[in-house]
Amino acid sequence: MKNTLYSLLALTLLGGCAAGGADKRIDCGEVAVFQQPEGRNNLYKVAVTRIDDKDVVSKASYRLLPGSYRLRLTEFIDDPRLAVPNAKRSYREMTLEVVAGQRYHLVAELAPEHREEAERYWQPKVWKQVQSDCSMPANPR
Predict the structure, then answer these.
(1) 15 lies in a domain?
(2) Per the CB 3.0–4.6 Å rule, which of 9, 76, 96, 114 could disulfide with 45?
(3) Strands (E), the chain
(4) Cα(117)–Cα(90) distance, rounded to whole angstroms?
């Protein structure tokens, strides 16, 4: 009797999980920092360190619901023309309107004419925008 009761309880719980919409997905957009532009043209890699007011672990891409986001980026500019010492380098912030089904490739754009000015030597930029099949769980944990 006890075993039957436990079996029914387990089946009920498992059935609830399966019927609970575990496979429900919603459309999203993607922010990517994993591609290095061909030929560079003053474009360099970046890392995302914060999305809105939340620090994030650095990774190649982030799936986001459609909407406006404030991103904090750190540059990885390795260019002999850059005269700003490492200690004076700083992050930049940009606002990005994310649309479902789009991937935004972000880069740091070096401004050679400002290569000695800590506040102006680079700017974040959407280098490339492409279609993307992006979906995420409706109830992410």
Answers:
(1) no
(2) 76
(3) 25-27, 29-32, 43-44, 46-51, 54-55, 61-64, 67-75, 92-98, 102-110, 122-131, 135-137
(4) 11
Kindly report the number of other CB atoms within 10 A of residue 130's CB atom. Answer: 11
97 φ, ψ (degrees, to nearest 5): -90, 110
Model pTM?
0.79
Range of the structural domain that residue 69 is part of:
24-137
Helical spans, DSSP H, in 1-102: 2-19
DSSP 52: T
Nearest to 33 by CA among 122, 100, 121, 128: 128
**CB contact at 8 A, 3 and 9:** no
User: How many structural domains compose the chain?
Assistant: 1
User: Residue 103 forms beta bridges with which residues?
Assistant: 30, 130
- Assess if residue 95 is contained within a domain: yes
The residue behind tokens 């914060």 is 50
| DSSP-assigned states of every residue in 85-101 | -GGG---EEEEEEE-TT
Distance CA 106, CA 137 (A): 24
Each residue of 34-89: pLDDT tens digit? 887 776 789 999 999 999 999 999 999 999 999 999 999 999 998 898 999 989 99
